[in-house]
Amino acid sequence: MLVHGNAYEIDITVSHQFNASHSLPMRPELHHHDWEVEFTISGKINPLTGMVCDMLELSEFFQPYVEKLNRQNLHEVDDFAQDNELVKVTKRFPTCDTLAHYFMWRTVPNFNHEPRFRGLTISKIMVKIAEPDDHEPWGWATIRPTNLTS
Ligand SMILES: [Zn+2]
Questions:
Q1: Does the model's pTM come out above 0.85?
Q2: What is the distance in A from the centroid of ligand 1 to the CA of 129?
Q3: Separation of 23 CA from ligand 1 center, angstroms?
């Protein structure tokens, strides 16, 4: 039997992959990686649909943000030059950490303005890194929104 009240939240996660190149001080030659981004949103079940939200719609919402980085040299992504201190760091150091922040910064305001996602929040974004053709990621970074501004 269900407990009365609404003391729960369900997390829904959709995943997108892209490949892109970068160089970092510890590995200065430009090289490729396979990346994966998991977007997690949280909310309650809509009794009219039996779903927190339509997963396909959710997936389609996030897809263009990931596509923007696909097959790119991450040091040349124009969006990383935007007026946000950490996003600018992304252009210089495109790591799982900075990319997770970038996706949060880029998607949260738009997600929050979508009427179809009312009542839902982006609760977590995870960026995973793998060597090309090596399907298992070897590391990842997770960001949770606290009080995002700009
Ligand atoms: Zn690398």
A1: yes
A2: 8
A3: 6
DSSP H helical ranges for the chain: 55-67, 85-92, 96-112
Which tokens is 49 given?
């649909």
Dist. CA 89 → ligand 1 center (Å) = 16
Query: Residue 92 C-alpha to ligand 1 middle, in angstroms?
Result: 13
Q: What is the pLDDT of residues 21-50, one digit of tens each?
A: 999 999 999 999 999 999 999 999 999 999
Instruction: Tell me, in angstroms, the distance from the centre of ligand 1 to residue 99's CA.
Output: 13
The answer to whether 73 touches 35, Cβ cutoff 8 Å, is no
Give the domains, in start order, of the chain with CATH numbers.
10-143 (3.30.479.10)
Instruction: Evaluate whether 20 touches 73 at the Cβ level (below 8 Å).
Output: yes
